[in-house]
Design a protein that fits this description.
By secondary structure, the protein is of the alpha+beta class. Pfam families: HATPase_c (PF02518), HisKA (PF00512), PAS_7 (PF12860).
C-alpha cells in the first residue's frame, strides 16, 4: 500500500477538483453548443425552406470559380446538375444563351473588382423563359477574390405582363396623344378641373375665347370662360356635377372677343380625377330658334290680316291655330277654339252653323275630308256652295309633320263682281265700237288686239285682215296707201314701239289722200299694251288756217298802226313846236302887252303844249320800245334821291288832295347803273298815277330795300283798286279803261305801259297787285349789274 504525503494528497485533490470542474464546464458548454447547433440547424433548414419557396434562386460563384446552387435553378436553366464552373451554365442547346453568359461573366468580374451590385436579364436557350439576375460580391479577405452571390428571378410571366403593359401603355399613349391633339384642335373651348376644381388643362379654343396668351397663362390666372358668380357660376356648377356624378348641361351667355353669344356649357364628372367640361356655341341655333318663333308669330299675324279663313291642325288632328276671318266665317267662339278641338268636332260645329254644303251622308262626307291629312296627291281644292248662296273656295294642304292647313276663301263677292265685270265688258265693247275716235289696242309684241269700227273705216282695212290680229308693220304697209305722204306710214310702227317698249306717250298728225286730217296719239297702258287713237281734226285744221290768216292780217295792221302813230307823232311835233314858240312870244310881249284875260289864255296854251309834247314823247318811246330801238344810256344813279325827287314833284298835288305821301328809302338802295332819265320818267308815272287815282284823304307810300343782287321799290296806295278786267287792260299801250270814279277821271293811260317798258329795258320786272276797295301796289325789281 502506497501512502501519499499530505502535500501530494492536497495537490491531487486540487487537480481532481479542477478536472471535475473543467469536466462539468465542458459538459455545460457541450450541451450549450449542441443546443446552438440544433438551433442553427433549424435555422438552416428554415433558410433552405425559404430559399426553396422563394421566387428567386441563389447561385454562389466561389472565388475559385466553383458553383453552388439549388437544383431548382438548374431546372429553370434546363440542366440536370450544377456544373462545376460558370461556363457550364451554357451547354449544347440548354442553359443560358452564350451572349448572356458572357455578359454575366463580365458583370461578376466587375463586381469582384468594384464590389458594386449589378442587374441583368438573361434568356434560356430553347425556351421562352426570361431570368432577371441580381448579383453582388462579398467582402475581400486577405486580398483574395471573394464569392459572388447571384439571385435568379423568373421574369417570364412578369416580362409577358410587362410587354403587354408596355404595349397597352404605348396604345394608351397614342390614344392620349390623338385625344390631346383632337382636344387641342377642337373649335369649341374644352377644359379640365382638378379635384380642387381649379383649371389644370385648357385647349387653344379656350385660350382664344378668354383672350389669353397661352394655356399656361389661363391656368396660372384661373381665367373662367363664364363670368357668372354664385350658384350659377362655373365652379358651383362643376361642384354640383361632381357631387351628383351626373353630366350637367346649361345654357348661359358669354362675352367672346367683345361679342355677346349663347353657349351650352357641359360639365362631365371624372370621379377623383376632377371634372372635364366643354362649351358649344349655340348662338346661331338660338338666333335661328328666335327667328323661327318670330317667323311663326309674324306668319300668324299676317294670317290674321288675310281676308281668307285659315285653320291649322296638328299631327294628332287637334286644332293648333285659326285666324280671325276663320272665326268670323264659321261663327266659332274663341273660348271653344282655345280647347283645341279635333278635326271632326270642328266640322260638326261648322255644320251646326250652317256653313257646310248640304249632303245626305254627312258621316261619309266627313270621313272623306279626313283623307286630307294623308292625301298622296298633296293639296286638295274644292268649291263649296252653302245653303245661303255663299260660295267658298277650299284648299287643304297636308303638312310634312302630319298636320293639315286649310284655307277658306269666300268667293261670293268675287263671283258677283265677275258677273258685273262681264256686263261691264259688254257695255264697254258697245261703247268702244261707237266712239267718234278711231281706236286700236296693240299688244307688247306689236299685234293688234282690239279695234273699233271707226279705226277700220278710217284706214279702210278689211275685216278679214283685222281678224288675223296682224302686226303693226303689216298694218303700216296697208295704211301707206291711204296717206297723202306714204312715207309717213312708218310713224305708226314707231309710235306703237315707243308706247310698248319705251313706255312713253307720243302724238302727231297725219293727212290722208282724201283731204282728211287726223290727230293721233300712242299711250302706254298699265298692262303693257299700247292704245292708239285717231281723232278727225279736218274741220279744226280749216278753222285754224282761217284764224292764222286773220292773225297775220291783224299783225300787219298792228305794224301799220304803230308806224302810223310814230309818223303822226313826228308830224305833230312840228306844228306843236310852232304853236309853243308863238305862244311864248306872245307871253314875252313881242306882240305888245296882253290884257289879263289874254295872258291867261296864252298860259293855258303853253300848258296844253307841254302836256301834248309829253304825250307825244311817251307815244314815241312806246313805239320805239315795241320796235326794239329804245335808246338806253348808262350812268351811276342814286336811286334813293331819284325816287325822293319823283315823290317831291307830286307832293303839291298830294297836298291839294289831302293825300298822305310817305317815303321810306333806306341807304341800302345804294347806287345803280342805268338810264337816269328813263328811270325818273318811270317813277314819275308810278307816283303820279298813285296820287292822281287815290281818293281825297287817302295814303300813298313809296318804299324800297336792296342788297348786293337786286333793288326792290314799291309804290302803293289805298285807293279804290281795280278788278280783274281793269288789271288786264292796265298795261295796254293804247287802251284806257273806264271806272266809276268820283272825280270823273279815267283810270289809266300811258303811265304804266311806259314804266314797264323802261324797267324791262334795264333787265328788271314790274308787277302790279290790286284789289277792289283795298288799293293797288306796283313793285319794281331791278337787278344790279
Amino acid at each position: 500500500m502506497i501512502v501519499l504525503s499530505p502535500v501530494l494528497a492536497v495537490a491531487a485533490g486540487v487537480i481532481l477538483a479542477l478536472w471535475l470542474t473543467a469536466g462539468a464546464a465542458m459538459l455545460v458548454r457541450g450541451r450549450r453548443l449542441r443546443e446552438e447547433a440544433l438551433q442553427a440547424r433549424r435555422r438552416g433548414d428554415r433558410l433552405l425552406e425559404l430559399i426553396d419557396t422563394a421566387p428567386a434562386a441563389p447561385l454562389v460563384v466561389h472565388a475559385d470559380g466553383g458553383l453552388e446552387a439549388p437544383l431548382r435553378l438548374m431546372a429553370w436553366l434546363g440542366l440536370d446538375e450544377v456544373p462545376a464552373t460558370l461556363s457550364g451554365l451554357s451547354a449544347d442547346d440548354r442553359g443560358l444563351q452564350v451572349a448572356d453568359l458572357a455578359a454575366l461573366a463580365d458583370d461578376i468580374a466587375s463586381a469582384r473588382v468594384t464590389a458594386r451590385p449589378f442587374t441583368r436579364a438573361v434568356k434560356v436557350r430553347g425556351s421562352s423563359r426570361t431570368l432577371l439576375v441580381r448579383g453582388a460580391a462579398g467582402v475581400f479577405s486577405d486580398g483574395q477574390p471573394s464569392d459572388v452571390l447571384l439571385w435568379f428571378f423568373d421574369m417570364t410571366e412578369s416580362q409577358t405582363e410587362i410587354a403587354q403593359l408596355r404595349e397597352e401603355g404605348a396604345r394608351l399613349s397614342r390614344a392620349f396623344d390623338a385625344l390631346s391633339g383632337l382636344i387641342e384642335a377642337s373649335p369649341i373651348p374644352m377644359w379640365h378641373r382638378g379635384p380642387d376644381l381649379r383649371l389644370t388643362l385648357v385647349n387653344s379654343a379656350y385660350v382664344r375665347a378668354v383672350e389669353a396668351e397661352d394655356a399656361q397663362d389661363v391656368v396660372r390666372r384661373g381665367l373662367e370662360l363664364i363670368e357668372t358668380a354664385g350658384s350659377k357660376g362655373p365652379l358651383a356648377m362643376a361642384a354640383a356635377a361632381r357631387e351628383s356624378r351626373r353630366i350637367s348641361s346649361r345654357t348661359v351667355p358669354a362675352t367672346i372677343a367683345g361679342e355677346r353669344r349663347m353657349f351650352n356649357i357641359v360639365d362631365v364628372p371624372l370621379g377623383d380625377a376632377g371634372v372635364a367640361g366643354y362649351a358649344i356655341d349655340i348662338d346661331a341655333q338660338e338666333q335661328a330658334r328666335l327667328a323661327l318663333d318670330r317667323f311663326v308669330m309674324a306668319q300668324r299675324d299676317t294670317l290674321d290680316r288675310l281676308s281668307a279663313g285659315v285653320v291649322q291642325f296638328g299631327p294628332d288632328r287637334t286644332l293648333l291655330f285659326c285666324n280671325q276671318p276663320f272665326q268670323r266665317l264659321f261663327a266659332l267662339r274663341p273660348e271653344w277654339l282655345a280647347e283645341r278641338p279635333e278635326f271632326d268636332r270642328v266640322l260638326e260645329r261648322m255644320r251646326e252653323a250652317g256653313r257646310l254644303p248640304e249632303v245626305r251622308d254627312f258621316r261619309g262626307w266627313r270621313d272623306e275630308r279626313r283623307g286630307w291629312f294623308t292625301s298622296p296627291d298633296g293639296g286638295t281644292e274644292e268649291h263649296w256652295t252653302l245653303p245661303g248662296g255663299a260660295h267658298f273656295r277650299v284648299v287643304a294642304q297636308p303638312l310634312p309633320d302630319g298636320g293639315l292647313i286649310v284655307i277658306f276663301e269666300d268667293q261670293t263677292e268675287q263671283l258677283a263682281l265677275a258677273s258685273a265685270r262681264d256686263t261691264l265688258l259688254r257695255v264697254r265693247a258697245a261703247t268702244f265700237d261707237n266712239l267718234f275716235e278711231g281706236i286700236g289696242v296693240f299688244a307688247a309684241d306689236g299685234r293688234l288686239q282690239l279695234w273699233n269700227s271707226k279705226f277700220r273705216d278710217i284706214w279702210e282695212f278689211d275685216e278679214e285682215l283685222l281678224a288675223t290680229h296682224p302686226r303693226v308693220d303689216r298694218l303700216a304697209e296697208a295704211a301707206s296707201q291711204r296717206l297723202s305722204n306714204p312715207s309717213r306710214a312708218a310713224i305708226l310702227r314707231e309710235l306703237v314701239r315707243v308706247a310698248t317698249t319705251d313706255r312713253k306717250q307720243r302724238a302727231g298728225r297725219v293727212a290722208l289722200k282724201n283731204g282728211s286730217h287726223f290727230e293721233f296719239a300712242a299711250v302706254p297702258l298699265p298692262d303693257g299694251n299700247a292704245l292708239f287713237t285717231m281723232l278727225d281734226i279736218t274741220d279744226s285744221r280749216r278753222i285754224e288756217a282761217a284764224l292764222r290768216d286773220r292773225n297775220e292780217a291783224l299783225e300787219a295792221a298792228d305794224k301799220v298802226k304803230t308806224a302810223f302813230v310814230a309818223n303822226m307823232s313826228y308830224e305833230l311835233r312840228t306844228p306843236l313846236t310852232s304853236i309853243g314858240g308863238f305862244a311864248e312870244m306872245l307871253a314875252g310881249g313881242y306882240a305888245g302887252d296882253l290884257s289879263g284875260q289874254a295872258a291867261d289864255y296864252v298860259e293855258a296854251i303853253l300848258e296844253s303844249v307841254s302836256r301834248l309834247g309829253s304825250l307825244i314823247d311817251s307815244v314815241l318811246d312806246l313805239t320805239q320800245s315795241a320796235a326794239g330801238s329804245l335808246p338806253i344810256e348808262s350812268s351811276s344813279i342814286d336811286l334813293a334821291r331819284l325816287c325822293r325827287d319823283a315823290a317831291e314833284q307830286v307832293r303839291t298835288l298830294a297836298d291839294e288832295r289831302s293825300i298822305s305821301l310817305q317815303v321810306d328809302l333806306p341807304a341800302s338802295l345804294g347806287r345803280f347803273d342805268g338810264d337816269a332819265r328813263r328811270l325818273r320818267q318811270a317813277f314819275d308815272n308810278l307816283v303820279e298815277n298813285a296820287v292822281r287815282y287815290t281818293q281825297v284823304g287817302g295814303r300813298v307810300e313809296v318804299r324800297g330795300h336792296g342788297d348786293d343782287k337786286e333793288v326792290v321799290l314799291t309804290v302803293s296806295d289805298n285807293g279804290p283798286g281795280m278788278n280783274s278786267a281793269e288789271q288786264a287792260q292796265a298795261f295796254d299801250r293804247f287802251g284806257r279803261a273806264e271806272s266809276d270814279r268820283d272825280d270823273g277821271m279815267s283810270s289809266l293811260g300811258l303811265g304804266l305801259p311806259l314804266a314797264r317798258q323802261f324797267v324791262e329795258a334795264h333787265g328788271g320786272t314790274l308787277t302790279m297787285t290790286s284789289e277792289v276797295g283795298t288799293g293797288t301796289a306796283v313793285t319794281v325789281t331791278l337787278p344790279r349789274r
